[in-house]
């Protein structure tokens, strides 16, 4: 017994000693990292070990938009601003030249943080799908297969679906107006965009405005989980978070099993020789390879891309339209000008054509200005594997660079009086912003769905402006919530009236 006790205590001592050595080595390593990068300007660290992480956690806890903190830092410490997160160093880059050099080049892959999007609390989420894959070859292979579905020729063919689904929203709004009730524009627009992506990407009829659906909630859950997962590495281990983590896992499972079901149905249809449309689902199946040689990784990759398009294909567009409506409620002059343009271009017509959309120039400006102040996908990061000089500052290799259109879009340096909503900044004759406005990101990894999204946003806005007046309900704020994508916090609840009703 005594012998056992001695052995045990020696073992414990030895382990403690090892832990101490490990801790000491980590501290030395930290010191080394600090020495290597501290010549780069940046805000004071909250702590030696954790760096600026405590600031991140504070913002997260207080439900603040972390990008406002980044904006403040960029204003105070300049275009190249260092942040320490444990032993990671992240450089917030806001100068146009640095932005151009890194984002436009295929040399700089998406960084480690995308790994934290591929998994969600131990479950595979976006995996190696088109948004999250870091591997250039795997990305290129997928992107090439998807590209044809986003050509203008193909997109023209979607106008019927866009029109038809948006009409369902109009029917709903007629009801809201007739009943003289209020409605959350964020929620209603989300129904249309989900309807559209389900139909054109996967050939499914959700008819969201009629059926109650579990999807909007599940998507919010996953995205919110993603925010916690990426900013607080210990989140899932804290007992108080257990119920939320469980809900997120369930939501994630729901999206993936839905994908598996829809893919299965589609494959069965194909095997039965049915005439299936050449849509995103077809391409997802195609990119996974031949049925005979399909590995379980191929199967998972299909689900990755299913979830990727299901989320990326509607979430940010919804938020953009909702923010746009929100801003218009406090800019009657801009609203009047827009209505006039819509009346001139489409009049009373129900079916809006692709060419009509091209003529809605002022509406384009308004939507661009919306994304300047509210870039719904606010940031992107790149790994920088080599030494680099940005704005005259030497940056040794081993950092990630962080780019945010939210930050640059709100800097006085690039946009005079930045919080003023002014669509004339994007007047066709105005100078184009130079690498300081990139709500769809830039370069090879920029948004595949940009044109798709702007067609949809314009079409929904045009129909709305054509037929309705809307007023923000009392108690609604103009605040932003960071739910993975940026959303209007209170959902843009409006009362809606028919346009010709005079009151
Ligand atoms: C207003 C609407 C939208 C905005 C603001 C937006 C913004 C973005 C941004 C910033 C990225 C880069 C993400 C990153 O660097 O991590 C991105 C990528 C992507 N987006 Fe969008 N997006 C929108 C709509 C859409 C739509 C409608 C689709 C599909 C139908 C889509 C599909 C994608 C895909 C597939 C990627 C990954 C591209 C790649 O890495 O090759 N997006 N989007
Ligand atoms: C409008 O009123 C009708 C009848 O009271 C009701 O069935 C319907 O759900 C209401 N619609 C909305 C959008 O409030
Ligand atoms: C929605 O309703 C339609 C018919 O009204 C039905 O065919 C479809 O399966 C429903 N979808 C869901 C997800 O419940
Ligand atoms: C943000 O996400 C949370 C958690 O899923 C959800 O309860 C909330 O409604 C979302 N906010 C908006 C504006 O969608």
Secondary structure elements and their pairing?
Blueprint: H1 2-37, H2 53-61, H3 66-77, E1 80-85, E2 88-93, H4 96-103, H5 115-118, E3 119-120, E4 123-124, H6 136-146, H7 152-156, H8 159-179, E5 182-184, H9 185-202, H10 215-231, H11 242-271, H12 280-287, H13 296-312, H14 315-328, H15 332-346, H16 354-359, H17 361-373, E6 379-384, E7 388-390, E8 393-395, E9 399-404, H18 405-409, H19 450-467, E10 468-472, E11 480-483, E12 485-488, E13 493-498
Parallel strand pairs: 2-9
Antiparallel strand pairs: 1-2, 3-4, 5-13, 6-9, 7-8, 10-13, 11-12
Helix pairs in contact: 6-12, 8-9, 8-19, 9-14, 10-11, 11-13, 12-13, 14-17, 14-19, 15-17, 15-19
One 2-acetamido-2-deoxy-beta-D-glucopyranose binds next to loops.
Can you walk me through this structure?
The protein is of the alpha+beta class. It folds into two domains: 1-32; 38-498, Cytochrome P450 (Cytochrome p450, Orthogonal Bundle). It has 19 helices and 13 strands. A four-stranded mixed β-sheet has the order 1-2-9-6. Strand 1 and strand 2 (88-93) form a beta hairpin. Helix 10 packs across helix 11 and helix 15 (332-346) runs antiparallel to helix 17 (361-373). The chain is globular, with a radius of gyration of 25 Å. The termini are far apart. Protoporphyrin IX containing FE (HEM) binds at residues 130-131, 143, 309, 312-313, 316-317, 320, 376-377, 380, 439-441, 445, 447-449, 452-453. This is Cholesterol 24-hydroxylase. It comes from Cottoperca gobio. Its main location: other. GO terms for molecular function: cholesterol 24-hydroxylase activity; heme binding; iron ion binding.
């Amino acid at each position: 017994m005594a012998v056992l006790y001695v052995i045990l205590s020696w073992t414990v001592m030895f382990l403690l000693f090892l832990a101490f050595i490990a801790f000491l080595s980590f501290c030395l390593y930290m010191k080394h990292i600090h020495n290597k990068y501290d010549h780069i300007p940046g805000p004071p660290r909250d702590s030696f070990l954790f760096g600026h992480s405590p600031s991140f956690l504070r913002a997260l806890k207080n439900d603040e938009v972390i990008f406002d903190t980044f904006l403040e830092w960029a204003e105070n410490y300049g275009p190249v601003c260092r942040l320490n997160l444990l032993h990671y160093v992240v450089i917030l880059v806001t100068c146009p030249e640095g932005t151009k050099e890194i984002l436009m080049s295929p040399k700089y892959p998406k960084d480690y943080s995308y790994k934290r999007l591929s998994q969600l609390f131990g479950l595979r989420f976006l995996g190696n799908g088109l948004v999250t894959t870091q591997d250039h070859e795997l990305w290129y292979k997928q992107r090439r297969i998807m590209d044809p579905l986003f050509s203008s020729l193909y997109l023209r063919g979607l106008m019927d679906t866009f029109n038809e689904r948006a009409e369902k929203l109009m029917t709903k709004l007629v009801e809201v107006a007739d009943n003289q009730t209020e409605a959350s524009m964020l929620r209603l627009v989300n129904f249309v965009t989900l309807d559209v992506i389900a139909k054109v990407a996967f050939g499914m009829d959700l008819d969201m405005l009629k059926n109650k659906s579990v999807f909007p909630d599940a998507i919010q859950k996953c995205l919110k989980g993603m925010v916690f997962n990426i900013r607080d590495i210990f989140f899932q281990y804290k007992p108080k978070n257990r119920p939320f983590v469980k809900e997120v896992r369930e939501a994630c499972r729901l999206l993936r099993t839905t994908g598996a079901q829809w893919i299965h149905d589609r494959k069965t249809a194909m095997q039965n020789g049915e005439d299936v449309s050449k849509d995103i689902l077809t391409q997802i199946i195609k990119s996974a390879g031949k049925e005979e040689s399909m590995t379980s990784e191929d199967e998972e990759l299909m689900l990755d891309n299913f979830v990727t398009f299901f989320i990326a294909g509607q979430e940010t567009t919804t938020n953009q339209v909702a923010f746009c409506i929100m801003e218009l409620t406090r800019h009657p002059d801009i609203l009047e000008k827009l209505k006039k343009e819509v009346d001139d271009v489409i009049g009373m017509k129900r079916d809006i054509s692709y060419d009509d959309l091209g003529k809605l120039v002022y509406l384009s400006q308004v939507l661009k200005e919306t994304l300047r102040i509210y870039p719904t996908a606010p940031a992107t990061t790149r790994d920088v594997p080599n030494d680099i000089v940005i704005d005259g500052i030497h940056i040794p290799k081993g950092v990630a660079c962080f780019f945010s259109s939210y930050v640059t879009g709100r800097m006085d340096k690039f946009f005079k009086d930045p919080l003023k909503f002014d669509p004339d900044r994007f007047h066709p004759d105005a100078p184009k912003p130079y690498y300081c406005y990139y709500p769809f990101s830039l370069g090879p990894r920029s948004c595949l769905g940009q044109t798709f999204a702007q067609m949809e946003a314009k079409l929904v806005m045009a129909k709305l402006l054509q037929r309705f007046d809307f007023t923000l309900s009392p108690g609604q704020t103009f605040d932003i919530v960071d739910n993975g994508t940026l959303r209007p916090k209170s959902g843009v609840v409006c009362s809606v009236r028919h346009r010709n009703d005079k009151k």
